[in-house]
Amino acid sequence: MKKILIVFGTRPEAIKMAPIIKEFQKNTGLFEIRICVTGQHKEMLLQVLKVFDIVPDIDLKIMKPNQDLIDINSLIMSKLKVEVLKYNPDLMLVHGDTTTAFASALTGFYLNVKIGHIEAGLRTFNLKSPWPEEMNRQFTDKISDLHFAPTLQSKENLIKESIKSESIHTVGNTVIDALLFATDKVNNNNTIQNNIELQIETFGYSLSSRKNQKKILVTGHRRENFGDGFKNICEAIKKIASNNPDVDIIYPVHLNPKVQEPVYKILADVENVFLIKPLDYLPFIYLMQQSYFILTDSGGIQEEAPSLGKPVLVMRDTSERPEAIEAGTVKLVGTCTDNIVIECEELLTNCDKYLSMQNAKNPYGDGKSAFEIVQVIKSYFKI
Ligand code: UD1
Ligand code: UDP
Questions:
Q1: What is the mean pLDDT of residues 20-44?
Q2: Do 374 and 317 fall into the same domain?
Q3: CA-based nearest residue to 32, from 59, 69, 1, 7
Q4: Do 257 and 150 belong together in one domain?
Q5: What would the mean pLDDT of 233-252 be, rounded to a whole number?
Q6: Ligand 2 in contact with 252 (CB < 6 A)?
Q7: Is 25 among the domain residues?
Q8: Do 331 and 312 touch, CB atoms closer than 8 A?
Q9: Which of 267, 274, 342, 364 fits 173 for a cystine, CB–CB 3.0-4.6 Å?
């Protein structure tokens, strides 16, 4: 049996690793799986583990309020080292571009463990944007033995960096596997829908009493937007809300104090802005479906939205996900207040533009990524 150590620590990594864990669990005779969460996130990670019914074997519990990158890196490396030495895995899997991914991959690299990088090859080629994610992703790819690229474009990025093509496998993005699981639950079960509406209401937004309002869903958390970027974003939201009393803006606010502070300071008293706690994954997908469009700086949401037919305005200047922009569902709008307002107003009023953004094909796969990833790992080990 091959020993696989799966390491992740934040909300999006958990969502995208969950389908792979489920797929490995179908192959128990071939693999022994150990799930290690770093705990880079706490409450937001638990929310996802609960939805997918995943119980970690190891929790490094590293989260501190307002943690900095050096804390996260050094704590993960020193604590994960002990676990890797104890378990001695044949392969470690890490995901994406977080500090968890990079610190874990580096730990594995120093201990001579083979590394598989899920969601490899995304690039902006600008180390400052997204920061520090672009560096995390480039370095993780450099020291990985297996690269699971979601698209041909991400594969090409890796080849340009002289990564051996035999190590690169184009498998789509497991975010779609997770999304299909979520939409299947959310759309086919009245009890689940009622519970979801109840959770959203408990968190501060009543879908039933606001059903005639158009809804804009907002999320934001990027480190490079801290400070002026967040102030600009909040001022834009305030203007859009006051220009459009028939629109509700619903904003599940990331738990990072550097996000919470400006958001609550600028937006807490705006009548048609609803600041709520981060939602569980299923309620969030449900709310995406009820929204007119989404305003975000998130990566994962850009990948999910095309499947739901929801336009996404991205409050960033760069994107490592050009496929979604080319497909037409996603548009970069930067972080200047006036530009965000102009782009939102345009989408609210220009029906042709809205429809052209709505009708795009999802470039991130068909929901079979986890299966393909496990197949590749089987042939890597010749089992
Ligand atoms: C991290 C990732 C980012 C990813 C994002 C997904 C890095 C450097 N950043 O950013 O790439 O897009 O996750 O959301 O890896 N907090 C809680 N409870 C939680 C989670 C966070 O209280 O469950 C608070 C803590 O005060 C924590 C702070 O948020 O210190 C920041 O969390 P951190 O993981 O450092 O950064 P994110 O902005 O979440
Ligand atoms: N998400 C969630 N609850 C929320 C906001 C987002 O479950 O309140 C999900 C969303 O569906 C997506 C993922 O979290 O799959 C995106 O995470 P985030 O924006 O934190 O990180 P990023 O994708 O930017 O790394």
A1: 96
A2: no
A3: 1
A4: no
A5: 98
A6: yes
A7: yes
A8: yes
A9: 364
